[in-house]
Amino acid sequence: MIDLQLLISYGAQIHTVEKGEALFWEGAACQYYFQVHSGQFKWVNIGEDGKEFIQRIIEPTQCIGELPLFDGGTYAASAFAIGRSEVLRLPIEQFQEMMFEHPELQAKFLKRLAGMVRFKFFMNKEIAFDDPEKLILTVFAYFKNHRMYIDEKDDLVLLTRQQIADLTGLRVETVIRVIRNLNDKNIVRIEDRKIYLDNLEGYE
Fold first, then answer.
1. Hey, which CATH number is domain 4-120, 2.60.120.10, 3.30.565.10, 3.30.450.20, 3.30.870.10?
2. Which long-range contacts (CB under 8 A, 24 or more apart) does 4-12 make?
3. Global pTM?
4. CA distance 37 to 48
5. What is the 3-state secondary structure (H, E, C) of 108-121?
6. Are the C-beta atoms of residues 133 and 168 closer than 8 Å to each other?
7. Which of 3, 52, 175, 180 has its CA 20 to 30 A from that of 191?
8. 189 burial via Cβ count (<10 Å: 0-12, 13-18, 19+)
9. 155: left (phi over 0), alpha (psi -120 to 50) or beta
10. Which residues are CB-contacts of 200 (< 8 A; sequence separation ≥ 6)?
């Protein structure tokens, strides 16, 4: 997202977050700009019943929790490290100074925020139809077309079944059943418990 050396020149420091540890909590005040340096984070809302709904999985070079930096609000979701991870952490005052002195960065953030809104519209539309198989197929096609969570070399899905469930709002048992059915139809291929997208014609 933002060049590593540029962030460091404004005072960013590397902060380590252990597996399962929260980087920030929904509703908390924003004090830093965070950019993932290594590892992965899940950006989630948690219901009263403890069920997680993953908004996005954030990977190296991507920023996380940036909305309050622009609207002055609190964090809209919580962030947890999927494994031991590192983030670059830049205090909000230095972030604002950097944005003022490097206005070209604004276009990057506008494009990212627009992509997030578009993805939200897409997910809301698909979830509303209440067809688990169509939802999963359409989501896989979207991820493939937008180079999200899919290995470009062999079309391997880089998500666990639980993560697919948390992203779509489905029960993990439903995800397992649907993927097994798609394997039987030769639309996806299951190999060593990994999911490969062999034939998404009609959904891309």
1. 2.60.120.10
2. 4/37, 4/88, 6/98, 6/102, 7/35, 7/88, 7/90, 7/98, 8/88, 10/90, 10/94, 10/95, 10/97, 10/98, 11/90, 11/91, 11/94, 12/88, 12/89, 12/90, 12/94
3. 0.81
4. 31
5. HHHHHHHHHHHHHH
6. no
7. 52
8. middle
9. left
10. 137, 140, 141, 144, 187
85-132 pLDDT tens trace:
999 999 999 999 999 999 999 999 999 999 888 888 888 887 777 789
| Cα radius of gyration (the chain) | 18
Q: Where in the chain is CATH 2.60.120.10?
A: 4-120
> What are the structure tokens assigned to 67, written together?
């909305």
